[in-house]
């Protein structure tokens, strides 16, 4: 077994065993880079070999770009070099077919750097993994999964799928996504509250790449279709720089199970029945295969810190229910986890009580973004209330001013305050 980082025992930081990070998706990669920025070594293990595909909508939003900038990366320069395309908003299409453009602000007030890019995850994740490869404080192990992690006394003993073991560690950061069985195995040992497996808080998604046949409502702008047949959920179209379109569909798992929905059949049925989408997308313009994945929504607060353990990104259940965006929360949770890890290494305190600050900080920094999803989630489970929700969406879409009103929901520092304000609704109705 290779010796990754021999301990010299001279300094707290250098002498500590490396932090082990499971998963080199955006969450795991950013955690390792943020730790390295503060002089902390890590071993990152991913069962896949990069570049690897990941079913996603391929939309990289402003919060993610800001985290990359804080890591001294330059996404405005680097991402276009790996075929990212700038986008300045999203077109939302209500159930009645009316469209509303929601425009994004530039990343910084003083520059015109876009705040959002579309980029295939294969390329985005590989861009981050290249940063890991280039960093002397990070040891990346690809192509071998973690089979088991056992908490013995106050250290994690980690066994890989090929039977080898990593150096025992005080700190394990789990960024293995939401399809990972490892997460439940590990959380059973260390977490105070075990996340309840409740299907309302999970989704299922499908993604396919199609040749771009045009027909966009606004050139270069992703489209989000809210349709009765996909509720609770939606259909997203993302234009990409390479002449392809990412078509992806997400539905809440409880609804799919309750109605025995076959997601692939529903995907093709929805496209074929739609007056304009049927002309743009068919099995003939699909490149490769449809790929599926689960989503873990941040519609419930979970305990994500335990003895020597912090869960990051999808493993922590942080995807926004309404937009299906999860990359931003994965990288922001990674940044927070790295800060807490540094403090715990300095104090040599890896206890659950000390790491509990991670959960508090997650709530403080991500709670506002997840709030709207948490508020509407109960309505979406009830078919009668969904009827009401549909009317509201149709109404908002019919108002010309809808776009600017909706973009307030993206940028307001306190979404619940905005939703309690009568002027917000006045603006929606009268402009
Ligand atoms: C259909 C769909 C559309 C979406 N659209 C968007 C979008 O447009 N924008 C957005 O921001 N988000 C979107 N999301 C959500 C987004 O994909 C996730 O939130 C994001 O990938 C989370 O990153 P992560 O690093 O937590 O996990 P992941 O990206 O899933 O990375 C986890 C990594 O862990 C590795 N791993 C798993 N188990 C093990 C193991 N036992 N040992 C070692 N390695 C392991 C995996 O190989 C993987 O590389 C979408 C999701 C879906 C399904």
Characterise this structure.
This protein is α/β, with parallel strands linked by helices. The protein has three domains: 12-54 and 121-197 and 299-373, FAD/NAD(P)-binding domain; 203-293, D-Amino Acid Oxidase, Chain A, domain 2 (2-Layer Sandwich), CATH 3.30.9; 382-430, no CATH class. 39% of the residues lie in helices and 21% in strands. The protein is built from 15 helices and 18 strands. Strand 13 and strand 14 form a beta hairpin. The chain is globular and about 60 Å long. The N and C termini lie far apart (66 Å). The model is unreliable at 1-12 (pLDDT under 50). The structure holds flavin-adenine dinucleotide. Residues 22-28, 45-48, 54-59, 145-146, 175-177, 180, 182, 205, 207, 248, 250, 293, 295, 313-314, 319, 324-328, 330 line the site of flavin-adenine dinucleotide. The site of flavin-adenine dinucleotide has 39 residues, from helix 2, strand 2, strand 12, strand 15 and strand 16.
Would you kindly provide a brief summary of this structure?
The protein contains 15 helices and 18 strands. It is α/β, with parallel strands linked by helices and about 425 residues long.
């Amino acid at each position: 077994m290779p010796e990754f980082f021999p301990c010299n025992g001279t300094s707290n930081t250098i002498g500590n065993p490396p932090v082990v990070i499971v998963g080199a998706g955006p969450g795991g990669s950013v955690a390792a880079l943020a730790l390295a920025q503060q002089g902390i070594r890590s071993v990152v293990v991913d069962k896949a070999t990069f570049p690897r595909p990941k079913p996603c909508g391929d939309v990289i939003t402003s919060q993610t770009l800001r985290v990359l900038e804080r890591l001294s990366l330059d996404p405005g320069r680097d991402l276009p070099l790996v075929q990212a395309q700038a986008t300045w908003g999203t077109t939302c299409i209500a159930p009645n077919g009316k469209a509303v453009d929601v425009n994004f602000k530039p990343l910084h007030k003083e520059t015109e750097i876009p705040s959002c890019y579309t980029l295939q995850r294969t390329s985005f994740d590989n861009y981050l993994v290249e940063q890991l490869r280039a960093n002397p404080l990070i040891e990346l192990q690809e192509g071998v999964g973690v089979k088991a992690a056992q908490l013995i006394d106050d250290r994690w003993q980690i066994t890989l799928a090929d039977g080898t073991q990593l150096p025992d560690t005080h700190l394990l950061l789990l960024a293995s996504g939401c399809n990972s069985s490892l997460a439940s195995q590990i959380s059973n040992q260390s977490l105070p509250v075990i996340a309840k497996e409740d299907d309302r808080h999970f989704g299922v998604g499908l993604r396919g790449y199609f040749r771009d046949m045009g027909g966009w409502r606004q050139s270069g702008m992703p489209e989000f279709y809210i349709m009765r047949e996909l509720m609770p959920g939606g259909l997203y179209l993302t234009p990409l720089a390479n002449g392809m379109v990412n078509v992806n569909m997400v539905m809440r798992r409880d609804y799919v199970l309750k109605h025995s929905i076959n997601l692939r059949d529903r995907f093709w049925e929805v496209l074929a029945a739609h007056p304009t989408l049927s002309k743009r997308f068919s099995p003939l313009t699909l490149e490769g295969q449809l790929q599926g994945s689960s989503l873990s929504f941040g519609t419930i607060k979970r305990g994500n810190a335990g003895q020597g353990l912090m869960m990051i990104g999808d493993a922590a259940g942080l995807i926004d229910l309404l937009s299906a965006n999860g990359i931003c929360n994965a990288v922001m949770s990674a940044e927070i986890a790295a800060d807490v890890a540094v403090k715990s290494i300095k104090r040599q305190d890896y206890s659950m009580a000390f790491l509990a600050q991670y959960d508090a900080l997650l709530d403080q920094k991500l709670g506002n973004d997840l709030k709207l999803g948490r508020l509407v989630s109960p309505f979406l489970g009830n078919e009668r209330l969904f009827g009401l929700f549909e009317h509201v969406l149709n109404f908002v879409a019919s108002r010309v001013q809808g776009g600017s009103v909706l973009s307030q929901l993206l940028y307001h520092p306190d979404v619940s305050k905005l939703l309690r304000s009568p002027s917000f609704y006045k603006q929606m109705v009268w402009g």
